[in-house]
Specification:
single chain; alpha+beta; 4-stranded antiparallel beta sheet; 48% helix; RmlC-like_jellyroll
């Protein structure tokens, strides 16, 4: 866990300017958990209690289409990023989708009650919470706008930019689901862009 803690400290400093003293305020609250491929970080209709930081592996959030029973990927969470069903976490209400490990994964997490106590104790941690909320908002807006204003090819390029190793880790049908296209379309995009990126 020492290595994971070092990675977390660096990430919190880069994300919100939290220094060693700030981190020490929180150190007793962080826990480490490993997930096997297919295990759930948070399930549909359950309340998300923890904010996680991914130190290895990949998670997805997905919904199940009631008419077709198809799974549709809506968010991806990869190494050195946060994993959280944010609306459920902040408001402590049941979640609208599943969040699941797509590979074996490791997460360092903190529960909502401990994080709220940190917000009360420290202006810097309160700032962290505000930045986290902004990040979650931006991710949700970017995701929505990408379907409104971007082509599938542009969404593909964004995916590579933000999750460069993902093609080596998960099946292509998960990627095509996330991009909102069929698998043959993804194959054509990849073939067309080979050598250009």
């Amino acid at each position: 866990m020492k290595t994971e803690i070092s990675i977390l400290k660096y990430a919190l400093q880069a994300f919100a300017g939290l220094d060693e003293n700030d981190f020490q305020q929180s150190s007793r609250f962080w826990r480490c958990k490993t997930y096997k491929k297919g295990e759930y970080y948070n399930e549909y209709k359950s309340v998300c209690k923890n904010l996680g930081f991914v130190t290895s592996g990949i998670f997805r959030s997905f919904i199940i289409d009631e008419k077709t029973n198809d799974q549709k990927n809506i968010f991806l969470y990869t190494k050195n990023g946060f994993v959280v069903t944010f609306k459920s976490f902040i408001n402590q209400v049941p979640c609208d989708y599943h969040t699941q490990a797509m590979t074996d994964a490791t997460v360092i997490y903190i529960c909502i009650t401990d994080l709220l106590n940190l917000y009360k104790q420290s202006h810097k941690w309160e700032c962290f919470g505000r930045l986290l909320a902004q990040e979650a908002f931006n991710v949700a807006i970017d995701r929505t706008e990408s379907f409104l204003f971007k082509t599938p090819e542009e969404r593909y390029l964004d995916l590579i930019k933000h999750h460069p190793d993902i093609f080596n880790s998960i099946q292509q049908y998960h990627i095509s689901s996330y991009l909102g296209i069929q698998a043959p379309s993804l194959s054509r995009i990849r073939k067309r862009l080979t050598g250009k990126i």
